[in-house]
Write a structure and sequence with these properties.
alpha/beta; 2 domains; Alpha-Beta Plaits; binds zinc ion; globular; Aminopeptidase; eight-stranded mixed beta sheet
Length: 472
Amino acid sequence: MKTSSTHPLLCLILAATLPCFVSAVPADLLRKLKLDSDNKYAGYKVLAVIPNSEDEVAWLADYKKTASGTGNCSLDWWSEPSLPTVTVSLAVNPGCVDDLVQEFRSVGLSVRTTIPDLEQLIALEKNYRFLSQLYRDPYKWNDEVYHSLAEIEEHVDYLVEEYPQILSKKQLATTYEGRKIEVVIVREPGPVTKPVIWIDCGIHAREWVSPPTCMHAIEQLIFAVNSVDPSEENLLALFDFYILPVANPDGYVYSWTKDRMWRKNRRPIAASEKQGVSLWGGWGQSNAKCDYGVDPNRNFPINFHGEGASKNPCDDSYHGTQPFTEAESQAIRNGVKIMHEQYGKGRVAAFVSIHAYSQFWMSPYGYKKSHSKDYKDHMKVMAKSVSALAKVEGTKFTYGPISEVIYIASGSSIDWAYEDAGIKYSFGLELRDRGEWGFLLPQEEIVGTVTESWEGLKAMALEIGKEYGIAS
Ligand SMILES: [Zn+2]
């Protein structure tokens, strides 16, 4: 993994003075190249806060609950207070930074700035992509940049057309804004005989490195079928796959076009949903967060509206009024229902939901601290997975139950898949990094991230395959 302390995108700000990098870019194009943005995050900083004791973790968690939108502050928590010494990141508006840092330090928390100018970094991300695409074949998929929803859908369509024997699409739901949520079914031709594995990506919009991980999985499965390299494991000889590259397309599009830091879906919040809730000031320069969006990954019926989900529509983890009110959670329920009908219960070998960031491989439970009855088997499979993953570029993942690795999270798909849908191996992944760039993971790290993740997923599948008598 690259360990440079300079963000690769930062070199682009120097584009005009880096002739080696941009000598081939026409001057008029360079002039057009500007930091286009609506300045939503002008002056915002991202802070890394480290609680040093259980008391400080508790203090910070309480602060998050009660003071995120008070006074001059509008805070976007990128990660949750969890354990002593584990960094918590949050984006902070300019009018609040100094007071907040002082307050945090006064109670003993360590604070440092990881991203001094959030707006600039968002703009640089766009321009990096623009430059990277400039001299490429527009019809060729580029692994080295983030892709819009339209580009992802176009590439899926291309692959389905190119490999009709192995790939097909199935619509699972329609979003509030009318977009299709489509799963890609990857399997060798013939009757259903193998167990099946589910992988979904992009349920949280701003976690941009997640969708490319699903796309990479689809491509690797295709290529392994035809590989002449005997060391290349053809997982399609063992399993069928249902892969959902973008589980929250409305949110994803919004994160591209309006607000890079958007996490939820885009369903408008009804007036009745706000009744009896004390709404804090909302987010950024508008109340957009109070008016739109449910966190689809808090909308599943396991300990619904319990700890780690919010009843406040302004919150990023707003759970909605009832379970399965959202197209995105309905889509996942439908996908699992279809797999159960086609394969039979007990033949859905794994359910994997891919997020970013933090470098975690996690198992149930999220909503309670007690261990599941399959805890030991979960730990065994996760150990194999993270060890295979680490072999690629040395990236270290922490593994264990969600409630122990990060925090209590209620209403998540992982607990639902395990407890309600009866899928024994139900895992949530948080990909790179550990918080240095967070959601704005440099595009230079996409290839490494998706490659190592796939190695981890392969190891997971092979280990689980032993229980089905299909792997040794
Ligand atoms: Zn997420």
